[in-house]
Amino acid sequence: MGVAAVIAPAAAFFAIGGDVHMTARPAPESEPVVVGDTMPCCMEIVAAAAMTPSIGQAGFNAAPDRMIAASRYRTVDRSLPVGIAPERGLQVKTILASRAISEAFPQIPSIGGVRSDALRWHPNGLALDVMIPNPGSAEGIALGNEIVAFALRNAKRFGLQDAIWRGVYYTPGGAQRGGYGHYDHVHITTTGGGYPDGDEIYFR
């Protein structure tokens, strides 16, 4: 009499990951982005492969590795690929934020980083300008809001100091409106974490 045993796979699913530019014609300021509850960003996937060993005629003389295959583990590469921002001169937390945003939002056309500025954030590799396609459209505004929410959810991991979008200044402690500009891009400032030495691996 044949017996069929099915071992169902088990899987853990992952969730994912300073300067002021005024427009020529100031746009109305937005309501602050509200960050909802999310799952942790950096869970590792470990899946068991499904197996249906047939005992039947082989009986108990079959090789143990064929009969008692519990699970198979696969290695998951959790490293983030290089993003779209030029990384030269960026500090490690800024690079992590840039790579994570590039991966999470592939529709972003460009991310600016180090540049000359009267304030220290961009020249010192502490800031990013995440450019928003069609920033005045409903879709563009929604995308900017999503990026701000993503940055705030990952504030500790990114060493987030602040984000600025559509006249609102965001910090991990809250948001405030009033004359902050940034209507075509989301400005993100990190605490830096020092300059890379070339051996860093940035994880999701």
TrEMBL record:
Q: Where is the ARB-07466-like C-terminal domain?
A: 88-178
Pfam families from the xrefs? VldE
UniProt-listed InterPro entries: ARB_07466-like_C
Tell me the protein's name.
ARB-07466-like C-terminal domain-containing protein
**Organism, scientific name:** Mycolicibacterium flavescens (Mycobacterium flavescens)
Organism lineage reads as: Bacteria, Bacillati, Actinomycetota, Actinomycetes, Mycobacteriales
